[in-house]
Amino acid sequence: MNISQPKLFMLLLGCKPAGRHTEQHDVFFGIGDSLKELVPAMHAFWPEAKKNLHADAWREVHTVQQYTIRARLKTEATETIDATGALNLFFINLGGYRKGEFEEHHYKMLIVAKDADAAVALAKKETFYKQNGFKGASAHIDDKYGIDADDVYSVQEILPEIFSARYTIEITAATENETVPDNIHLGYLPLWKIT
């Protein structure tokens, strides 16, 4: 019998809600065997989007920094979840500005760290953070004007209840052959086209 391993997915969802002039975005995390399995949860996550909901980017999360990320059923979770010394997977949304551009640019990232302060310290080392700000318009972790650990999210804590009640995120040190970067899929993908 071939039992598939559930995967952690990260998606950049988009839609143009009624009455808005530009497309809006949010990040969704879900756990399952396939993207198709997550479609009902995506609609529940953003019900106002109705049939306009789509993905602009997505990835199966396997590797972050030098760590392997796995979704495990809570009933199957073992001591290996703590093997790294209680590390957490954090989602950070960096925001920044470039002179002369009428835009706030964003960089969405995943960081493995022991706590939110350590995750923020790592985020500040990112090229995006260093190159997307200037006096009077500093780079920041959205939605603040400066770095604030309250805007760093543990992925386990922001998983929709349907996933967080059932799964835990396991973080282990990656072996050399496990450090291949995740494939990032880009482009407009209506949810009804996900197979």
From TrEMBL:
InterPro entries: DUF1543
Annotated DUF1543 domain residues: 20-70
Gene3D superfamilies: 3.10.20.10
Stored Pfam families: DUF1543
Protein name per its UniProtKB record: DUF1543 domain-containing protein
Organism: Cytophaga hutchinsonii (strain ATCC 33406 / DSM 1761 / CIP 103989 / NBRC 15051 / NCIMB 9469 / D465)
